[in-house]
Amino acid sequence: MIRKFLAPVVSNTPLAAPGHYVLTFHAPELVQEVRPGQFITVAAETGAQVLRRPFSIFTADAATGDASVLYNAKGPTSTAMAARKPGDTLDLVGPLGGRVFRADPRPGVRHVMVGGGYGVPPLVFLARTILDADPDADVTFINGARSREFLVGTDGVEAMGAKLLCATDDGSCGTHGRVTDVLNQLLCDPSRPAHVYTCGPTPMMEAVAGMAIACDVPCQASLEVFMPCGLGICMGCAVQRPDGTYARGCFEGPVFEAREVVWQ
C-alpha cells in the first residue's frame, strides 16, 4: 500500500565519492512491503511545492525497520537531504513502482547484476534478497564507473556472498573499459544458464540489454526515467514499447523485460 511517511532519519553517511551519501531512515511499514526495484519519492522540505524526487531503495532491514537510499547531492531535493541529521524527518511517499525485479527461479542459474551510478542501489537490494533466500545462490555483481572513487554502493556485496567485478573508464579498478566488456566474458560461457538484471544510465542499459538479447539470455532492466508524480497519473515517464504503445515507467515499471522496451 502506498503511504506518506514522515520518517525519522537514523543516519546520513557521506561516501568516498564526492557528494554521495547513504541516508538511513526508520519506516517499519514501508520495510515490510518494499521489494527490489521499488522506490520512494522525497520532498525537499515538508510541505514544499517543488516536485518530489524518486530514489530507489538501497537497503531494507526487517529486523530494525530501517531502510536507506543512496544519493548524490546536486539538486534542490538531494541537497536538502544532505543536510538531514539523525532525529530529523524525511517527507516521503512509497513504496512506489508496480513491477519489481523478479529473481529467476531456475536451479543453478547465474544471477548477473550490472549497475552503474544511481542504478546500483536496487541491484544491491535484489542481490541481498536472493542471497537471503538461498545463501548458495550464484550472484555476480558488475559495477561500472569512470574511476575507482565513483564505484559506490557495492562495498558490502562480497560479504553478502556475491562475486564483485568492476569496470572503470580510466582503469583505476578492475577491467579498463565498460561493464559490457566484463559481461561479455560471462555470457560467452554457455555451460550454465544466466539471467541479467540491470539498472543505470540508459546507454549502459541499452548496451547490456542488446548483449543479453543477442545471447538469448533473459534480462530485466529498471529504467531511469523522469517520474514527476510517481503515481502513474502525469504520463511524464512514458516508455515506448515495440508495438508502438506506451507504458508508464513508474506504474507498469520501473522494471521491464529488455525486449519490452524501444531503446533508441
The CATH top-level class label of the largest domain: Alpha Beta
Strand content: 25-35%
**Helix share, percent:** 10-25%
Helix run count: 6
> What do we call the CATH topology of the largest domain?
Rossmann fold
What integer is the average pLDDT? Answer: 93
List unreliable stretches of 5+ residues.
Answer: none
Beginning-to-end CA distance, first to last residue: 34 Å
Query: Could you give the order of strands across the largest sheet?
Result: 4-3-7-1-2-6-5
Oligomer: single chain
Number of domains: 2
Describe this structure in words.
It is a single chain. The longest helix is centred in the middle third of the chain and has 14 residues, at 120-133. The model has no long low-confidence stretch (mean pLDDT 93). Helix content is 20%, strand content 33%. It has 264 residues and is α/β, with parallel strands linked by helices. A seven-stranded antiparallel β-sheet has the order 4-3-7-1-2-6-5. A seven-stranded mixed β-sheet has the order 11-10-9-8-12-13-16, with helices on both faces. It has a two-stranded antiparallel ribbon with strand order 14-15. The chain is globular.
Keywords:
single chain; 264 residues; alpha/beta; Elongation Factor Tu (Ef-tu), domain 3; Rossmann fold; 2 domains; 7-stranded antiparallel β-sheet; 7-stranded mixed β-sheet; 16 strands; 2Fe-2S; 2 iron, 2 sulfur cluster binding; flavoprotein; electron transport; Dihydroorotate_DH_ele_sf
